[in-house]
Amino acid sequence: MKTKDSARPRIGVVICTCGGQIAEKVNTRAVEKKAAALEYVVHVAQVGDLCKKESLSRFKREFEGCDRILFAGCSERSSLTFTEDRISALLGEMGMDRAMFEVANLREQCVWVHDGDLTGKAMDLVRMAHAKLKSNVPTPAPTRIIKKSLVIGGGPAGVQAAVDLANAGTEVTLVEKKAYLGGHFCRIPYLVQCEGWPSMCVSDCVAPVQAREAIFNPLVRTLTGSEVTDLVRDNGNFKVKINRGALLVDPDKCISCGKCAEVCPEEYDSEYDSGLTKRKAVDKDYRLGIPDHYVIRKDVCSECGECVPVCPTGAINLAAEAEAVEDSFGAVILATGFKTFDVNTLTALNYASPNVVSSMEMERLLAARLRRPGTGPVERVAFALCSGSRVKDKINPEGMPYCSKTCCGFAVKQANRITAMNPNAEVSMVYFGDIRTYGRAFEQFYSQAKESVDFINGEITAVEDGEEGLLVRLETPDGAEEQLETDLLVLAEALLPGGSELIDLLKIKTDRYHYPLELQPRILRPTESYIDRVYVAGALTGPKLVQQSVEQGSVAALKALNHVIKGQKDLPKFTSEVDPDKCSHCRICETVCPHGAISMAESGAAVDRAFCQGCGLCVSACPSHAVQLRNFYEEQILEQVEAAFSEAENGGPKILGLLCYWCSYASADLMGLNGHKITNTNFRSIRIRCSSSVNTGLILEIFKRGVDGIIIAGCPPKNCHHGAGNYMTARRVMLLNTIMRQLGLDGRLKWEFIGVPMWRELADAVHKMDKTLKALGPSPLRRKT
Amino acid sequence: MSRVKLAFNWGASCGGCDVSILDVGRAVLDLPQTVDVVYWPVALDYKRKDLEALDDKSVDIGIVNGAVRTSEQEEEAKLIRAKCRYVVAYGSCACFGGIPGLANQFGRNELLERAYIEAPSNTNEAAVTVQSVSERDGFSLTLPEFLPEVRTLDQVIEVNHFVPGCPPSTATITELLETLGAIAGGKTVKRILAADKCLCYECPRGKTKEAKKAEKLYRPHELIADGERCLLEQGIVCLGFATRGGCGSRCVAANMPCRGCYGRLPDTSDPGAEAMSALAAVAGDWEDYLPTQKIFDVLDAVRDAVGTFYTFSLPSALLKRERG
Question: What ipTM was predicted for this assembly?
Answer without folding.
Answer: 0.95
